[in-house]
Amino acid sequence: MSKFQIRSLKPLSFVAFGLAALYGCGSSSDSEGGATANGGAAVRGGASNGGASAGSSNGVAGARSSLSGAGGGLGAAGNAGVSGAPGTSGAPGTSGAGGRSAQGGAGSASGGAAGATTMGGASAGGASAGGAGGAGSCSTPPAADSVVGWASVDGMNQNGTTGGGSAKPQVVTTLDAFKTAVSGTTAAVVYLNAKLSNASIAIGSNKTVVGVCGAEFHGHLGISKASNVIVRNLKIVGYGVGDCTKDPSFDASVGCSSGADAVSITSASHHVWVDHCDISDGTDGNLDINAGSDFITISWTKFHYTPRTDNVGDDSTGAGGHRFSNLIGSADDVPEDVGHLNVTWHHDWWADNVNQRMPRTRNGKIHVVNSLFTAAGDSYCTNSGFQAQLLVENNVYSGVKNPLQPDANGDMLARGNVFSNASGTTTASGTGFTPPYSYTPEATSALSANIMSGAGPH
Hints:
4% of the residues lie in helices and 22% in strands. It is mostly beta strands.
C-alpha cells in the first residue's frame, strides 16, 4: 500500500504528505542551478530564510527558489576552482511556506555526486561533469512526487505505477520523434522540449512523459489499451480553443461532443498517473476516463476553458458552452466498467469557465480529496452517477453553484469540505468507501493558496 498523507503545507510538511517532494511555485519564478564541472554541492530548494550554503571553494552550488515561500533565497557561491578537491555538502535551507528545503550533496572532482535526500523527501541529483544543467537551465524537470491514490495500488498484474522507471531520458523536439518515442511497450522516459500543435498522439505502456522548458502539446493525447503510464509537468491544450469547429473531427449535426478530449484514458487502460499538468479546451472534455480503465490518479492538475458558445448540433448548450471537464464512464450500460473506473483526484483545480463534470462519474470508487473548485458560472461540480461510490473530503468550493450532485442511483459521502460563497447542495451523507491506501487529509485552511501556487507544470 502507498503511504498517502495530506496535511497543510507548513515548513517541511511534504514529508508528512508522504510525497517525495513538491514542485516549485511556477516557471516564472523558479530558477534551477547546477554545479560546475569541478564539483560544488547541488542544491534544490532554497527557502524564505535563505538557501543552502555552497560547497567548498572549488565548486559553485546551484539553488532553486522555494515553492511559494516568500523570499526563496539562493545559496551562496564559493570561489570557482579548477581542480578536483571535493565540495562539502551545503547546509539545509530553511523551508518557506510550501517550499522545499534541501541538503546539498558533496561535489566530486569530476562533477557533483548524487544529492542527499531533500528535507521534503525527494532526492535532488547533483550536476554532471561539465556543469550540464547549469544556472537557469530548464532541461532537467523538477523531481517527481511519489504516486499516491489508486495508481499506487497493485492490481491487474501491475505493481503500482512506475512508467518508464529508470530508463535514460530521451529528449524530443519534433512531432515525429515524440510519436515514435511514446509508442510501443518498451520502457521509456521521454522529455518533450517543444510546442507541438494540431496532433493526435497515442501513448503506449511503460512510459513516463515529462514536459521541460515550457513544453506544450495541442490536440489530443490518448492512452488506450495501455498500462503503467505517467504524464507530468506538461501543458495540454485541446483542439477546441474558443470554438469547437476547430476540431478536425467536429460534426455540426452533433456539436462539440463529436470532437476529441484533450486527454482520454480508455479501453481498459490501467495504472495511469497524470501529475502537475495544465489541461484545457478539450472539444468534448478535458480529461475523460472510460471503457473499463482503472487504477488512476490525477494530481496537482489544473483544468480550465477559454470561453465559447455552442449554438449548433444536438448537444448544443448555447451560451453555457460545452465546457464539460471530466467524465468517468461514458454511459450507464457499459459492462466492462463494472468493478473498474477507480480514480483518485487530489490537489486538482477546476478553474476558469468549467461548466460541469468536476468530475461526473459512473461505477467506480472515486476519491476527490484536497482539491479546489473556483469555476464561477458553472452548472454543477462533483457528481456521483450510476453505481458510483464517491468519497469527497477536505475540498474547497469557492463561488460555485451546486458543489455536490449526488444522483439517486449513485452514492456520495462528503465530509470536511469548505463552501465559500457557494449555492446549492453542500451535503451528501451516503456510504462512500474506504480507500485501500493510507492517507491523512490536508487541512483546508491554506489549501486554496497551496493549490493555486502548486498545481500545473513547473
